[in-house]
Amino acid sequence: MNVEEISIKIQDMTIRGAGRIARYAAKALKDYSETFNGQSQEEFILGLDKAAARLISTRPTAISLFNGVQITIRGAKESSDLNSARDLVIKNADAFCELSNSAYDKMASYGSNLVQEPNMMAITICNSTAAISVIKAAFQAGKITGVYACETRPKNQGLITIRELAEAGVPVTLIVDSAMRYVMPEVSIAFIGTDSLESDGSVINKIGTQVLAATARDFEVPVYACAETYKFLPPSKAGQRVQIELRPIEEIIAPEDLPENVEVYNPVFDRVHPSLITGIITEIGVIRPSEVSEISEKYLEGI
Ligand code: RUB
Predict the structure, then answer these.
(1) What is the gyration radius of the CA atoms in the chain, in angstroms?
(2) How is 39-108 classified by DSSP, letter by letter?
(3) Active-site residue, from 31, 97, 150, 195
(4) C-alpha 92 – ligand 1 centre gap (Å)
(5) Dist. CA 90 → ligand 1 center (Å)
(6) Ligand 1 pocket residue status of 111, Cβ below 6 Å
(7) CA spacing 20 to 30 A to 284: which of 37, 117, 264, 266?
(8) CA 199 to CA 276: how far, in whole Å?
(9) DSSP H or E run through 190
(10) How would you class 180 by CB atoms within 10 Å of its CB: exposed for 0-12, middle for 13-18, buried for 19 or more?
(11) Is residue 62 within 8 Å of 130, Cβ to Cβ?
């Protein structure tokens, strides 16, 4: 698929999830480099910048997309000639996808070691490949007995989660989002995905994550965010807040069913205060929210 085809699929959420959209953006830039048939490096860079901007514009909240694109195009402008620029983008894209895919096993191992007492119920929201990797590993290690999966209105990504967990043999119970407080007394640990990690350790993830984290705090349930280092806000954006994506009202109600004089508001991501986050499971280990800036400087240098 080319840049435009992948952009459309990210925008309409056929391709979704912070890790996956970043990998597809890298693949789109690889395709651009492989199929470029112009003659000059200037022309290549111009098109590359345009492709990068198009991909980044598709979804505003997941910083993984921005970082994945920057990591892929890094150094192309400074390359000595057209061929080395093209080769570099292809190499960067492959290396980024490899890093992203290999992060899951590492996070799974760090995350499953966090569970101290066996026979615990976990809870999750939305559909996070990172959180699911940790949950699967924790179950296989006999650390958790099952999972509550929130349905995740309005797009019901929880339905993807229950299918993936069931296929892996993990006992999973689907609940509507508003049942999370009702079941929380039975829960011992929460694993959530991450779209972006802001410099102060705030976790940006699917709408409803804030309710989940605040409810977990009330029941003294630890909350672990699963976030590969490329989901951290990079040094060039340190201290900034990511934009929370607003999506069409059709995701909530058919416009013809909407009574007159009624507004619909559809913010699709939440910002979870760092005080509600027990730890962040990354591919380099489990860190505290207060360590986010330091890790970002180290792993996203120059971005
Ligand atoms: C998906 C979502 C996921 C994170 C992390 O939102 O909030 O929890 O993206 O996912 P959407 P992963 O469905 O709107 O893309 O761990 O797969 O990167």
Answers:
(1) 20
(2) S-HHHHHHHHHHHHHHHHTT-SS-HHHHHHHHHHHTTTTTSSSHHHHHHHHHHHHHHHHHHHHHHHHHHH
(3) 195
(4) 23
(5) 25
(6) no
(7) 117
(8) 15
(9) strand 187-192
(10) buried
(11) no
Cα–Cα nearest to 58, from 8, 99, 102: 8
- The alpha carbon dihedral of 179, 185, 190, 195 has a sign of positive
Q: Where in the chain is the domain with CATH 3.40.50.10470?
A: 107-299
pLDDT tens for the chain, 303 residues long, are 999 999 999 999 999 999 999 999 999 999 999 999 999 999 999 999 999 999 999 999 999 999 999 999 999 999 999 999 999 999 999 999 999 999 999 999 999 999 877 778 999 999 999 999 999 999 999 999 999 999 999 999 999 999 999 999 999 999 999 999 999 999 999 999 999 999 999 999 999 999 999 999 999 999 999 999 999 999 999 999 999 999 999 999 999 999 999 999 999 999 999 999 999 999 999 999 999 999 999 999 999
Q: How far apart are CA 94 and CA 87, in angstroms?
A: 11
* Closest C-alpha among 203, 180, 200, 184 to residue 192: 203
Does the domain at 3-104 match CATH 1.20.120.420? Answer given as yes
Q: Which CATH architecture has domain 107-299?
A: 3-Layer(aba) Sandwich (3.40)
Return residue ranges of the chain for CATH 1.20.120.420: 3-104
DSSP, res 288: -
- How far apart CA 251 and CA 55 sit, in angstroms, is 22
Distance between CA 190 and CA 223 in Å, rounded?
5
Contact 22, 64 (CB under 8 A): yes
Of 126, 150, 226, 270, the active-site residue reads 126
Q: How many Å lie between the centroid of ligand 1 and the Cα of residue 153?
A: 13
